[in-house]
Amino acid sequence: MQNKKIAFVGSVSSGKTTLIRNLSTIEVIDTDVESSIDIGKEMTTVGIDFGVIVTDEDLKISLYGVPGQRKFSFMWDFVKDGLWAVVILVKNNCTESINEINYLLDYFEVTNDVPCLIGITHSDQIKGDTTSKRVNQILNSRDLKLPVYSINATLKVNAELIIRTLIAMEDAKHG
């Protein structure tokens, strides 16, 4: 059985844990704890969230969600090795989240040869199109051709779109 590894990365509250919960065919192991500081939500990921998609007897996709706070970024190294794909989540109209994109692209060594996409979350709650324009400017400045979607992490159909896109990107690269 082939095992592919996907990292879900992004700022705090960008939807990483929610997407993994929507995708996993096993019970998700999550590391959410009550936040000791005000980060705009009650719970936060402090370890590595983990889920799995078994598509058929030949393919298993492991889903890893890493903490959005840089103080926990040392855990990113555990996920970084052997990655098949990276999903970068950006919270709509959040300057801090947008500013993390370049850092994440560098840290996870994203190139046009790595299946990667960017999901702009919270578009259903926070209006405006500044984020997609800024994301595309960042990608253009790095000569990266990555899909950019506005998604709702709470919708399973949006989560499945991410996986289908990553698989299609790999298929296009190999054939």
Describe what this molecule looks like in 3D.
The chain has 175 residues and is an alpha/beta fold. 33% of the residues lie in helices and 26% in strands. It has five helices and eight strands. It has helices spanning 16-23, 76-80, 95-107, 130-141, 156-174, and strands spanning 2-10, 32-34, 43-45, 49-56, 59-65, 85-91, 116-121, 148-150. The strands form two sheets. A six-stranded mixed sheet has the order 4-5-1-6-7-8, with helices on both faces. Strand 6, helix 3 and strand 7 form a beta-alpha-beta unit. The chain is globular, with a radius of gyration of 15 Å. The mean pLDDT is 88.
Name a few traits of the molecule.
175 residues; alpha/beta; 6-stranded mixed sheet; two-stranded antiparallel sheet; 8 strands; 33% helix
Question: Brief overview, please?
Answer:
The protein is an alpha/beta fold and 175 residues long.
What layout of secondary structure does this protein have?
Layout: E1 2-10, H1 16-23, E2 32-34, E3 43-45, E4 49-56, E5 59-65, H2 76-80, E6 85-91, H3 95-107, E7 116-121, H4 130-141, E8 148-150, H5 156-174
Parallel strand pairs: 1-5, 1-6, 6-7, 7-8
Antiparallel strand pairs: 2-3, 4-5
